[in-house]
Write a sequence for this structure.
């Protein structure tokens, strides 16, 4: 909590993600929770979708439920050829650059989690706005 006694789950999860890239942390985000709820409904798990409804009525942030939903989403995405290709392409790009990301300091699952974070953000965005994003 901060000085105003407000939860800082999003900030804390971002700090943990980048300070400890080998830890299985998922970034807490309002739009990602919308994606997690959608994915739970699609799996037929209404209870999980309800548990993730944490931004309404002053409910506590249930990071454990969010983490479980993201871990499940990551396992699902790892089976998808386009996600596999995106991970492979990004790892190859980093290897060519010779940057910190290519020096075995950051595990491959960090890249998977970052790509999933972006995917779930945009899924949540589309759910929230009831439209697909338009990219220029």
């Amino acid at each position: 909590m901060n000085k105003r006694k407000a939860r800082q789950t999003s900030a804390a999860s971002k700090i943990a993600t980048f300070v400890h890239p080998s830890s299985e942390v998922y970034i807490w985000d309002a739009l990602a929770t919308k994606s997690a709820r959608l994915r739970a409904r699609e799996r037929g798990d209404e209870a999980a979708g309800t548990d993730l409804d944490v931004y309404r009525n002053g409910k506590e942030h249930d990071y454990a439920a969010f983490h479980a939903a993201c871990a499940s989403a990551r396992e699902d995405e790892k089976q998808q050829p386009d996600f596999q290709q995106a991970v492979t392409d990004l790892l190859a790009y980093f290897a060519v650059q010779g940057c910190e990301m290519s020096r075995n300091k950051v595990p491959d699952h960090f890249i998977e989690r970052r790509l999933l974070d972006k995917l779930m953000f945009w899924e949540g965005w589309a759910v929230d706005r009831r439209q697909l994003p338009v990219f220029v």
Q: What stands out?
A: The radius of gyration is 16 Å. Helices lie at 9-19, 30-42, 46-51, 63-78, 81-97, 108-129.
